[in-house]
Amino acid sequence: MVTTDEALTTKAVTVGRAVRHRPWGRHALRYIALILGATVVLLPIYMTVVNALLAKESIVSYTPKLLPFECSWDICSASGSQWGNFPKALDQVPLIRYMINSTLQTGVIVIGQLITSALAAYAFAFLRFPGRGLLFLIFLSTLMVPLEVSIIPNFQTVQTMGHSDALWGLGRHILRLDSYQALTIPFLATAFGTFLLRQHFMTIPKELRDAAAIDGYGHFRFLLFVVVPLSRPVLASLAVFAFLSAWNQYLWPLLVTNDDNMRTVQIGLAALRGREIDSFNVVMAGTLIAAMPMFAMLVFFQGQLVRGLTAGAVKR
Amino acid sequence: MAVTTAEPLPRLPLPGPLARGLTQLKSLGFGMLFLWPSILLFSVFVFYPLIKSIYLGFYESDPLGNQGDLVGFDQYRSVLGGSDFRHSLWITFQFTMYTVVPGIVLGLGLAMLANQKLPAISIFRTIFASTVATSVAVASMMWLTLLNPTTGLVTWILDQFGQPRLNLLNDPDWALPAVALTTIWLNLGLATIVFLAGLQSIPERLYESARIDGAGRIGTFWHVTLPMLSPTMLFVTVVGTILAFESFGQIHILTRGGPLDATNVIVYSIYQDAFQRFDYGVASVKAVGLFFLVLGLTAAQLRFLERRVFYQ
Predict the structure, then answer these.
(1) Domain ranges (residues) in chain A
(2) How close is the nearest chain A Cα to the Cα of B173, in Å?
(3) Residue A72 falls in which region: left (phi positive, over 0), alpha (psi -120 to 50) or beta
(4) Could you confirm whether domain A92-310 is CATH 2.30.30.220?
(5) The whole model's pTM is what?
């Protein structure tokens, strides 16, 4: 080692060198830790894949199968028709129908939330009118009411409206059990989205609005042709966040859908519970099919997803 | 759009206050035009139900689910003070402890691993975030197989440590930890994403000054990382607690509140009261209780933790 004096004077240099020429052992340790973490996170998913590929005769075993093959010495062979579990799962429950229902439900909620919250956020960011501050606080206060608290009256509302005589017979066209309306309408407005967009709209200079007004732009045209194009990233974050929470809904779809044709994928998947006792390989295949759209979202929209989820957490 | 240099159009000479009033009225009109969809939806699906729930709590329900006699605060007193609600409260509290604390430790650990500057680190970031792509139903079905008494991996691992094989989800001592394990895994991706964003917002120069001051890894973690991460910690704690209090899907799929009510958290008992026993009165009382509980808990956490949070 060098003397203390030398070490002090060349500190910056040695630090720089240490960063550049890190010994391989250190890197290896880091990768081992990373792989360990990844294993823990991925194990349940990996086991699901293995189980979904197991043939019927190999599912009953005391030791869990870690590979979807039968291995002896150096030869591994697939046992039985491995991919057969996937068509079997689609055969047992109308998973495709559930996925279409979930897609429609989620699509309507995402588009609806983008529209209502962009409109509301515009009013809070660009218009000055009496009571604006109070109204904004009232909007935020809805974040304090968990869905579970309002679920009984909301269920009763849907039930009552569904009766043919409610609102002079119009009620059942607006809301009734086993309808896309019941799955979507209660979630079309969002205080979180309004807040998120308002925060972004506030960063748009007011002069832009004045200039647009001189060019003859009304509020709607200004919102649509100036504000929205300037807010694409934050709109994308909100869309992904809305997608995630709508797709994952459980309690509400469970309550308002009785008809098998109206079930969402979460509820339909849960209905497989009980069948796993004799054929969990088929159930796991169904689970994987149901999980696919979200994994695709994660791979393609990771950036937006991360921004949407961290919007409330970190001040930027 | 060209910013014109032209003079603004000449306005009609209206007296000051009147002109101001008119502009404000016009603004209010436009405001309502933009706000009415949200106001209508919030009124029908948030504020009306909240008041209706409080109201329903004052009435008993007959066995058919119809509104019965007005009993006033008696129902609130008997339900909220009753052993049934206290049991659910205790289960919910335990469940929160089992999920929030390990969730923070694991989430922070994974985030710190993912925050290193190494080749191919983005692959690991995606993997660590991957559980946000599993819905509660997907995660529960996966863990149902892992927890299976004869072929499940978790039961097999416990067996290797000398714990005799049993049906964890059917055992009053094991059911809640088993559901909590599923929930920790389910929420791990979210915690990791949020912690990673928090770590990345810490300026590099702070680490550099710590290094120059001679701080080691552990010292840097305690005196730089943790204090700088405290707003994120606050967020994860509050969100984790709310998520724990509102957990339903995993309990509905894995245990249905059993065995012997060992996993009967408040939300699940509301569901049972309202939609299996059709006792809307009792369920509404519990729902109102849950509302004030979540409100109070969030406020308390914000107050208590806010003092320890270090904002830059």
Answers:
(1) 4-80, 92-310
(2) 22
(3) beta
(4) no
(5) 0.85
